[in-house]
Amino acid sequence: MTVVTRFAPSPTGFLHIGGARTALFNYLYARHFGGRYLIRIEDTDRQRSTEEAIAAIRDGLAWLGLEGDEPAIFQSRNATRHAEVARQLLADGQAYRCYMTTAELDAEREAARAEGRPVRIRSPWRDADPSEAPAGIDPVVRIKMPREGKTTIADKVQGDVTIDHEQLDDFILLRGDGSPTYMLSVVVDDHDMGITHVIRGDDHLTNAFRQYHLYKLCGWEPPVFAHIPLIHGPDGAKLSKRHGALGVDAYREMGYLPEAVKNYLLRLGWAHGDDEVISEAQAIDWFDLPQVGRSAARFDFAKLENLNGHYLREAEDARLTNLVVERLSRERTLDDVATTRLRDGMGGLKARANTVAQLAESAIFYIDRPVFPLENPKAAKLLSGGGAAVAREAGSALRDLDRWLEEDIEARLRRFAEEKEIGFGKVAQPLRAALTGSNASPGLFEVMAILGREETLARLARTPDHD
């Protein structure tokens, strides 16, 4: 059997982080077993589904490298096929037309609430003579679910889960206007796509029993179900925006790398010993469903940022330069000189950052000269008490330097400090503040070498006193 999985988002909003993890698990499971991973856009809710949401979902999947192995399927385009299946069930006596009115349905629900029991519609039309159908009512089509006994599903994550048939109602297959419902569409599409494993959030676990019986009544073999726990915040509460329940696009904007996000999502509810940093190749080799925990995973931004820092330092400088240029170009024009400085300085910059956003912020001094008075109070303090004068004098001492190389710059500045009879820190720190506008930066001599002789000396010469 060839394993076939699917990720089936509803395009009523962005691709949230929980959906991204579901997509990742489906992708890894298919890859692990040499199968196929497919995408289905469940856009049957035409009022809530939007083209913007579809584009956002597809863009998010592309960014994460989780696009399907085949072009995405749109569920709305299969409505005719879905309805055909319902009509066949009707013809086979496995479904029936229900003529219950809105008032009758409301009464059923009210009675259930009054008795403190779940709402389970028990339609009188299940076994009624169709000839008794009232005029003027467009009936829905309901499935005939079993009324007695129990069903057990061997879930690959939750284990054996059993439900009493009394808890199942005759859910609707076709609405009064003839349109198929979500429950019907999902089963028909999964069957027609050859889906062998349905891996999704455990909020769909109850649906699995309804869908299992629909498969059986259609004469089809149900897929293997695996319901993964949802993601909670670090406090154990349901994931909200303050915890990280954001769209994948928001994580991209915050400066996270896709490989870091995938690695972090992989570790949310799945484990491989004590391994934290897991490459995609390792994930494909190791991933299986028995290692998925049954408890809700807890999202932690601090852990994500730390992991992202690892991937940032491993990333190629050219790639990071492009990401920083893209971000900084939104507010300024970058010429070839600025881009070259960023690329040359990326090694020192990425060692001090955990996100692309931090990287871009720390790289601005390679493009823009510091604006005086400095907003950074710690840097401003370094230029007070004669610090600015030391920076200007050090610049003058560098003017006749033969070679503008890090080792030559360092040697000349150390000699300058000795001649001034001051500690080298009293020279280096004012220089750093004057050149970068900050009290922290990559190595001073590296910065000066990358800025170049002309720019370095110009910045030092224009440093005003901060007394």
From TrEMBL:
Protein family per UniProt: Belongs to the class-I aminoacyl-tRNA synthetase family. Glutamate--tRNA ligase type 1 subfamily.
MF terms in GO: ATP binding; glutamate-tRNA ligase activity; tRNA binding; zinc ion binding
GO biological process: glutamyl-tRNA aminoacylation
Domain of life: Bacteria
Quaternary assembly: Monomer.
InterPro entries noted in UniProt: aa-tRNA-synth_I_cd-bd, aa-tRNA-synth_I_codon-bd_sub2, aa-tRNA-synth_I_CS, aa_tRNA-synth_I_cd-bd_sf, Glu-tRNA-ligase_bac/mito, Glu/Gln-tRNA-synth, Glu/Gln-tRNA-synth_Ib_cat-dom, GluQ/Sye
Entry annotated with the keyword ATP-binding: yes
Domain Aminoacyl-tRNA synthetase class I anticodon-binding: 325-462
Any Gene Ontology CC annotation: cytosol
Record flagged with keyword Zinc-finger: no
Protein name: Glutamate--tRNA ligase
Keywords: Aminoacyl-tRNA synthetase, ATP-binding, Cytoplasm, Ligase, Nucleotide-binding, Protein biosynthesis
Membrane spanning residue stretches: none
Catalyzed chemical reaction(s): tRNA(Glu) + L-glutamate + ATP = L-glutamyl-tRNA(Glu) + AMP + diphosphate
EC number, UniProt record: 6.1.1.17
